[in-house]
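FORM 7B: Structural annotation worksheet

SECTION A. Query
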Amino acid sequence: MALKNFILAAMTILLPCLLMGQEQKKVVFVKVSPEKIVLKTGQQHQFVAKGYTSDDQESPFEVEWEATGGEVTATGLYTAGSKSGVHSVMATCKNTGAQGTAVVTVRGDEAEEGNTQDGDKLSDSSNPYFHVSTFQIKPESDVISQFVIKVTIVSDDCTTIKFLIFPKNGQPKELLQHHVSGKGQVLQCKGKYAKNGTAAFGIAAFKAEKELFLLKLDANKLSKPPKNAIPGGYMAQDANSPDMRTAAEKAAELLAVEHPDHTLVKVHQAATQVVSGINYFFVLEIATPSGNIKVQVVMYQDLSGDYSITKKKEVK
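SECTION B. Predicted structure
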């Protein structure tokens, strides 16, 4: 009996310590399935959300559901409302704020089959509000591309044009908003984006707060596909390119927080992986007081542009 009591007491003390050593990795992006669906008003559909860590591993998480154009329950059951249009169902990780989204096109019973507002099927002939005069993409590197979108207003009905970006994982974000003064006005949006993490650009026409029309432009049709694939979902990059050198210097800066006397000497290897943001993989040569060492580093950049080191180890 004394031995049994001793074992129980030891487990009571040691078990919390063991569990602390097995800290669950943070969820950095969320995927909602299905990603796209067309529903009639009042129709229901069950959505499922899965969370993934920065090394692309599925991880359980506490989800919070939100929706537009209808109602969604705490379990992800969506009921389409009475308003036709393109709407969203969003799942958010309560602990980290990582989000995933699905696009829901709601159509009334009176809607004709050829009049869907699914952005992938829209054409200028069904768009009475603006004409896309320019959509250009110019690769700047293996990771970053430049884009230019110009539209000409062809209707007096819309008062606002919004330019949006649709990540492959995550909620659409507004890039720019223009007030519309009348027909013939030319509006432009341009900038840079992470091409492997972007699914599409969006142009939305509004009258006051009411969305009239949404057009989605595929960001990948004009971009060169990624090359030099390597295991683990990473794409090999030129370690000497300006983009990789800048990112490597940022990684070295974060490493120096723990070791201020360590400095970057050379980038031996570089690769990227698109998640909800970007994982950078580096093999760095670092100068230390006792001599140069090589360090394998994974640095994560979130969609807000913040960086963090998720893995590091010394290699030979």
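SECTION C. Observations
The chain has three domains: 27-113, 122-224, 229-315. The first strand starts at residue 29 and ends at 33.

SECTION D. Sign-off
Analyst initials: ____
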